[in-house]
């Protein structure tokens, strides 16, 4: 049982900690106290997992960006009984002319589980900034959805991303998704930073939990793209079950447009969307020097044109900076490999998950160390990204609460609560990031910061601790 403190005591602690934080010029550890109860996965007969009516009706419908520039949409869905149709019919809002795109169907086996028929269909050459309706399925089991394509890629195009990580399928997961859907800031695309279903936490990696997760998230992911990042719970590496191929369920179910960014793997790729260039990396694929991921990234950063897409965002599951006890320093090898490039190419923000809590860093780097010079402490660096850990979607493993002490100066704010983020790009110079904890009202930001673009406005953004 966690301690329950009275409000005046909390207020006093808050005042003292704020005063201490200002006096010591360090970041802030939130004193917010939330429920200590662990959340279980929602039962299989929960309404959020309901199967749509009709024989072989498409389910688990979800979309992601289908090309590099945002004129393509990749539609995926599952038919449970037979392959059915691979066709997506689609039409612009102001048109009655239905067009068709043809996809593929696949199945996979995992231990004693056989998947339904998983369809993937890319629609190309859409108009920017247009609402489209689309249909999948046959006859009376046809299902209709819609999406809106992003505006034409350009430097001052406002765009609003949601940021969600480590979601799972508990009652807390449902609260997080609802909170995101009802946030008045209205995210247009979700940047998902890995760990989707947590099926692997069930006996034999029960893959029916991949299906329930697909049905749970359909209510949002069928209508706006989710940009996928692979986490450790996507590995499903289970030699004892005879399953030796990493990422098998994930890579069959969640296709991404990796070929259009000249990647050779779906686990690392990039997209352009509105005024943002998003690079997705894989914490759980080889990333040392000479590896395919390294070689791809080496060319990728050079390609980013900040005049076209000012905002450079990196997604990876495992954070490079994390001051919680759990997963502490797990991202260190990748930090040593890639932090230098993040600073050199002025990445604006790195979003990660993995740690089931929230944390935002100052703009800091730790790239001076050469083994003998002793310069191994992070320092304020205006060319460095802000690192945001947002693995607080609400999965069955619960919150990460134990923090390293004292609160390190590189960490601006940390709090162990479930929630989601909104990254709201205003123009080429300014973006507003806010973090929304599930316990608050839909419009409330528990933490927020104005980010100045590192290419267009590299000065004037003070470290929070120095304000
Ligand atoms: Fe994780």
What secondary-structure arrangement, pairings included, does this model have?
Elements: H1 7-24, E1 28-29, E2 59-65, E3 73-79, E4 87-92, E5 99-102, E6 104-106, E7 109-110, E8 113-114, E9 117-123, E10 131-136, E11 143-148, E12 159-164, H2 171-182, E13 189-192, H3 208-221, E14 226-227, H4 248-253, E15 269-273, E16 276-280, H5 292-303, E17 311-315, H6 332-344, E18 349-352, E19 358-361, E20 364-365, E21 379-380, E22 386-390, E23 411-415, E24 419-425, E25 430-437, E26 447-452
Parallel strand pairs: 1-23, 12-13, 13-14, 16-17, 17-18, 18-22
Antiparallel strand pairs: 2-3, 3-9, 4-5, 4-10, 6-9, 7-8, 10-11, 12-24, 15-16, 19-22, 19-23, 20-21, 24-25, 25-26
Bound molecules: fe (ii) ion.
Task: Give a verbal description of the structure.
- The structure is a single chain.
- Residues 1-25 have low confidence and may be disordered.
- An eight-stranded mixed beta sheet has the order 1-23-19-22-18-17-16-15. It has a six-stranded mixed beta sheet with strand order 14-13-12-24-25-26, with helices on one face. A four-stranded antiparallel beta sheet has the order 2-3-9-6.
- It is built from six helices and 26 strands.
- By secondary structure, it is α+β, with helices and mostly antiparallel strands.
- Strand 16, helix 5 (292-303) and strand 17 (311-315) form a beta-alpha-beta unit.
- The structure holds fe (ii) ion.
- Fe (ii) ion (FE2) binds at residues 166, 195, 231-233, 317, 354.
- This is Purple acid phosphatase.
